[in-house]
Amino acid sequence: MNAAKTCCCQCSCRLFEFLESSIGKKVMIALAGFLLCGFLITHLAGNMFMFGGANAFNHYAEALESNPFLPLAEIGLAALFLLHIALTIRAKFANMAARPVAYEVYQGKGARTPGSSTMAATGALILAFIVIHVATLKFEVGGSKGPDLFAHVTGWFKNPLYAGFYILAVAGVGLHLSHGVQSAIQTLGVSHPRYTPMFRKLGLLFAVAISVGFASLPIYFGFFHHDMACCAAKGGAQ
Amino acid sequence: MNLTLKVWRQKDAQSDGGFVEYKIADVTNDMSFLEMLDILNEELVAKGSDAISFDHDCREGICGMCALMIDGQAHGKDKAATSCQLHMRRYQDGDTITIEPFRAKAFPVLKDLVVDRSAFDRIQAAGGFVSVATGNAQDANAILIPKQNAEKAMDAASCIGCGACVAACPNASAMLFVAAKVSQYALLPQGRPEREKRVLAMREAMDAEGFGHCTNEYECEASCPKGINVSNIARLNREFLRAAVLAE
Ligand code: HEM
Ligand code: FES
Question: What is the ipTM of this complex?
């Protein structure tokens, strides 16, 4: 570092150098990934209100939407996604450039996992899902919400194609996280002979829990749940 | 046994290369992989053709020269072994073996299977050393070093710089090599004074050579002939983060 630089310039140069470095980029991807995991937890917790029935879920949604800070949180969330995606794309291109001539035969020695070797593919799947998810459930593409969000969501889940893609995508999230969580821990420099194997298992467990949790919604409300109207018609007491 | 070899042939760094198929007969179980190549080369030279160029020196797993990608595995199918330690008893009659040079932008092919790994030397020259005047030997207990640190530093120092980590990495990343070279000093008091300067300079040199980003696939560890652990990469990340904040 050049000592003659002014403090402010030196700090920003430092930060820029860090963000441009291979390790710095990975650290930012990992931090964004972790924060996105935090979002997944809160989002899943909120969605679980669906199992409490239409009233519980609609009340939760109302409370969430009436929070004045929601737009701010949404912008922050979008920024996290954009940061994560932009940096992974840059890293991916740099990695492709780092091996211009591919191997005729590449076998490796068994360290890669189904998750690790499909990160870009599962990432692209998640992105496609988010676009459809936000378009249909937030911006009302293909059907307006009306006052009953619960009916809107379960209506979409009754479409087997929609439910099927939802399940596929959250399985993709699970695969992404099966590598992502332990990878991010390593990238942030955390490693210990005793705890690292435990972190790897917890990462896997988290990945499974997230995908099973999210998949439970389209599975139950798409294929098993019968709404009030249909039950009432049948005279059922469900 | 009789084998078919598919070998990458390339005249020089500027020329395009391609695979050439060779048949080799009467290979015995106790030949090493490199001896098998020697015999093929003798046959080629006797026929007046150009011998296949490949790097080697010690032929006992300590110099790190014998960089070969054998059937898509750096140093071949054995774990914790170099190409020169691989023996033909691991193959069967009729096998086809594909032999390629290590592939990375930072390791340009010089001829056939020989690549230029001086990128590693330049990373080392950027900071992989301790600048101290050693003077006379001092009292052995003047600087205390916890045993586990001494062992970890020794493990890291067993890196022979062969480049298998880069070759095996899906991203052609050199993180395991740099991690070993940073760790061997970061763990010892003698390396501490230049701790920040070292990791910043070596990271910069690594990126400047055009190696890829580590995505924690851990193929490097699986392919390392010396079994260097990826916990060293976590240490490198840690050292880099620490230095990025603390360095003056
Ligand atoms: C729910 C949303 C997401 C979460 C929770 C998430 C989480 C993570 C985590 C924790 C990592 C590991 C970071 C590291 O290795 O240091 C990661 C890596 C990655 N993510 Fe995501 N991610 C999400 C969405 C996406 C999307 C939408 C894309 C792309 C369009 C994407 C592409 C990638 C890629 C390419 C990597 C790096 C691959 C690698 O390190 O091998 N991710 N993600
Ligand atoms: S020739 Fe020295 S390690 Fe193989």
Answer: 0.94
